[in-house]
Design goal:
The longest helix is centred in the last third of the chain and has 21 residues. The mean pLDDT is 90. By secondary structure, this protein is an alpha+beta fold. The protein has a 5-stranded mixed sheet, with helices on both faces. 34% of the residues lie in helices and 25% in strands. Strand 3 and strand 4 form a beta hairpin.
Length: 124
């Protein structure tokens, strides 16, 4: 039985930022987001620390000596929100920099507001 494909909503500059990634990275992020739209979790997607569970996920891809990250959430019924895409610049450890986490939190709040305005009322 085939599941209905969930729509994806892009918050802030996420889509524009993702489009600036190398083709190989865009492909791997695209596959992981496609899997999320089908209601599954790609093996490369891991819960982002600090968000209390598996509702906010991060895809990490290394390419040509650089690390790229894309963050999305599946915590809202029937829709995937792409929250942030960025190249990790810091060479200090593997943790996500605070300013990137703060931006994800801000965009998660924007996603919640969008969901309440557009999905909870049964519009799309």
């Amino acid at each position: 039985m085939k599941r209905e494909r969930k729509p994806i909503e892009w918050i802030g500059s996420c889509l524009k930022d993702l489009r600036a990634f190398p083709e190989e990275v865009k492909d791997s992020v695209g596959v992981a987001l496609d899997v999320a739209q089908q209601g599954e979790k790609h093996e490369a997607a891991k819960p982002l620390q600090g968000f209390g569970g598996a509702g906010v996920l991060e895809i990490i891809d290394d390419f040509d000596g650089d690390t790229y990250r894309a963050v999305y959430t599946v915590k809202f019924k029937g829709v995937v929100y792409a929250l942030h895409a960025f190249q990790k610049k810091s060479k200090k450890g593997i943790s996500t920099p605070k300013e990137e986490i703060d931006l994800v939190k801000k965009r998660l709040k924007a996603a919640e507001e969008h969901y309440q305005a557009n999905y909870e009322r049964g519009q799309p």
